[in-house]
Amino acid sequence: MLAAEDGDGRRRAGPRLRRQPAASVPSYRPGVVQLGNPVIVDAPGAPLGAADATRRHALLLPDGRVRFPGVTAPEGTRTAAVLAGLGPEGWDRALLEVALPVLLSGGAGPHLVDAEGRLVLAVAEHPRLAGARIAMGPSAGLPGGGGGEVVGLVRRAGPGVWTWSVRALVPPDGRNAALDDLDAARDEADLGAWRARWE
């Protein structure tokens, strides 16, 4: 029992107060490695951080690789648990939602950052494939990348996290054809044919 004072200053016995356990939510403090969970780390060279210092963060994944340079600390914290659930096979195909001060035309969005820190835009809903959005972004840094673009379909994997369903590096003169083929897909079989042609 804990003692407490009465109004006249005398001590009296009172109920023992028990400290409540802290909520079991990972803290994701920068630089603190937590087994099995992504951790926010500094990324001073992040392309999106060149003009916005709040975007000089990335996520250190449990395999020891740093991915998603260009996110803010809150964006990283918000998406860490979903990324952990994707597992190593999904990390390189994942994209994180980022809030940029850019006005998008009707139906476009969200902006996404891929594992290498490239900005990708989900430009529109696919006309026939539920839950899929057509997305594209620059190809710099991809194997064989350079002057082309990355084109594909993304789907939401969880709050703030998307994944590529199909993705291809296409040259500038092939972008419209790749987008037209993707737009015409009616089912997973058509996506398989698109992958065979473009990936």
Secondary structure elements and their pairing?
Blueprint: E1 2-5, E2 11-14, E3 39-42, E4 57-60, E5 66-71, H1 73-86, H2 88-91, E6 94-98, E7 111-114, E8 119-125, E9 132-138, E10 149-158, E11 161-170, H3 175-184, H4 188-198
Antiparallel strand pairs: 1-2, 3-4, 4-5, 6-7, 6-11, 7-8, 8-9, 9-10, 10-11
Helix pairs in contact: 3-4
In short:
The chain has helices at 73-86, 88-91, 175-184, 188-198, and strands at residues 2-5, 11-14, 39-42, 57-60, 66-71, 94-98, 111-114, 119-125, 132-138, 149-158, 161-170.
Polypeptide structure, described:
By secondary structure, this protein is of the alpha+beta class. It has one domain. Helices cover 20% and strands 33% of the residues. The strands form three sheets. It has a six-stranded antiparallel beta barrel with strand order 6-7-8-9-10-11. Helix 3 packs antiparallel against helix 4. The chain is globular.
